[in-house]
Write a structure and sequence with these properties.
Blueprint lengths: L4 H5 L10 E2 L10 H11 L11 H21 L6 E4 L2 H13 L7 E5 L8 H10 L2 E5 L19 E7 L11 H10 L3 E5 L11 H4 L3 E4 L10 E5 L1 H4 L25 H15 L8 H28 L4 E3 L9 E6 L4 H10 L2 E2 L2 E2 L4 H6 L7 E5 L6 H17 L1
Parallel strand pairs: 1-11, 3-4, 3-5, 5-6, 6-7
Antiparallel strand pairs: 2-8, 7-8, 9-10, 10-13, 12-13
Length: 399
């Protein structure tokens, strides 16, 4: 399929400023249709969800539409889609709830490749009940995750792994890890925040009992989502108010949902489905669009990596065989923070840091400083990549 990046870019008001955005892993730009959906919801008659008044029915429709939209995006049952303030909040809530089912000596598996939101909630929950934390490292030379199966046992209760490293882009063999976890009777939690904007996701095929993502990383408003297997969610008893619904997934959503945010989430999924003109269901169009977007981003990533290879004193840490269009760079003689500021002065946003992937950064020997992260997005262009590379070349000459 043909990908018309200029047509896509025209739908993002913020891109008219001329800034080249390589900061998508921290939050994407927002198309006008998503902002319009948020506004339209806020100025429409709304009330608490119900079936009597028009305002109640409008609120209920927004919630149900958003669950269906995220289900289509993720290849997950709509009735298992849980909304929250952020992925971090939802993960903490689930960790505390699941920990009630653990006993001293039970085991929880986390990795050095993960964002801290898929590490610390599980570590802290395990410590609170006397469970054991098993760590899985990765090869700094290749960026490839070590074999998770090596640390599994009959006491493993949960395996938490990222679908893609937000720092170096590595995409582990998630489905294989999930199968190994289930063979041991463990639940499987996947952090899909960084993968979802770049590649088609099929939660059921991955074997995830829980799959987390953040709509603001794929053109939507700020909130978090966990797509859980409904039958697994039904067995969990989170803290909640007495009059709050005990239905799944509502029992996991504390208080009244932000209807305008959910309307924006639906609009974001519809936008993704229309990135590349195609026929079929929304799910089919989402998959077709993201597959084509992935090819576009991979071409640009190869251009970035080829250009970086020609810059002296540049070290590229994103080396895995399968990875997202995310490149982490450091410089032998220059601070990454200086490069960040220099590029910003040229209207090129490529931030520096560890980006909450503290275990990953430390495992690479970069401490908490991290590196310069170059994150490509569906609206990135070859001309912007040239600006980035020219800017880095000028920085290395001038610094």
């Amino acid at each position: 399929m043909t990908y018309d990046v200029e047509s896509v870019r025209a739908r993002f008001p913020s891109l008219a400023t001329g800034t080249a955005h390589f900061d998508g892993p921290g939050g994407s730009q927002v198309p006008a249709v998503v902002a319009d959906a948020v506004r339209d919801a806020m100025v429409s008659p709304l009330a608490n969800r119900g079936v009597v008044t028009a305002a109640e029915r409008a609120a209920d429709a927004i919630v149900l539409d958003a669950r269906r939209a995220l289900g289509d995006l993720l290849g997950a049952p709509a009735e298992g889609v849980v909304f929250g303030r952020s992925m971090t909040q939802l993960t903490y809530d689930l960790a505390r709830t699941l920990a009630r089912t653990w006993q001293p000596g039970d085991e929880v598996v986390v990795t050095r490749l993960d964002h801290d939101a898929n590490v610390r909630p599980w570590v802290q929950a395990a410590e609170a009940v006397g469970a054991v934390v098993r760590w899985v490292g990765f090869d700094p030379a290749t960026g490839e995750l070590d074999d998770v199966a090596d640390v599994l046992s009959d006491r493993t209760r949960l395996v938490a792994v990222t679908a893609a490293s937000n720092l170096i882009g590595t995409r582990p063999a998630v489905a294989e890890i999930g199968a190994a976890a289930h063979e041991r009777g463990a639940l499987f939690f996947v952090d899909g925040v960084h993968l979802t904007p770049h590649h088609p996701v099929d939660v059921e095929a991955l074997g995830a009992d829980f799959f987390a993502c953040s709509p603001y990383k794929f053109f939507g408003p700020h909130c978090g989502v966990v797509a859980g297997r409904p039958e697994v969610l039904a067995d969990l008893r989170p803290d909640k108010l007495v009059p709050s619904s005990d239905a799944v997934p509502e029992r996991f959503e504390l208080g009244t949902l932000p209807y305008e945010v959910l309307a924006g989430c639906t609009a974001a999924v519809d936008f993704i489905a229309d990135l590349v003109p195609s026929a079929g269901s929304r799910r089919e169009r989402v998959v077709a669009s993201l597959a084509t977007v992935g090819e576009h981003e991979d071409r640009l990533r190869e251009k970035v990596e080829s250009g970086l290879a020609e810059l002296p004193g540049t070290v590229v840490w994103s080396r895995a065989r399968r990875r997202t269009p995310t490149v982490l760079v450091t410089f032998t003689d220059h601070a990454v923070a200086d490069a960040y500021r220099y590029l910003a002065g040229l209207g090129v946003n490529a931030p520096a840091g560890a980006f909450y992937a503290v275990e990953t950064s430390r495992w690479l020997g970069l401490g908490d400083t991290g590196g310069l992260r170059i994150g490509l997005a569906p609206y990135s262009t070859g001309a912007e990549v040239d600006r980035l590379l020219d800017g880095l070349a000028a920085f290395l000459r001038s610094a």
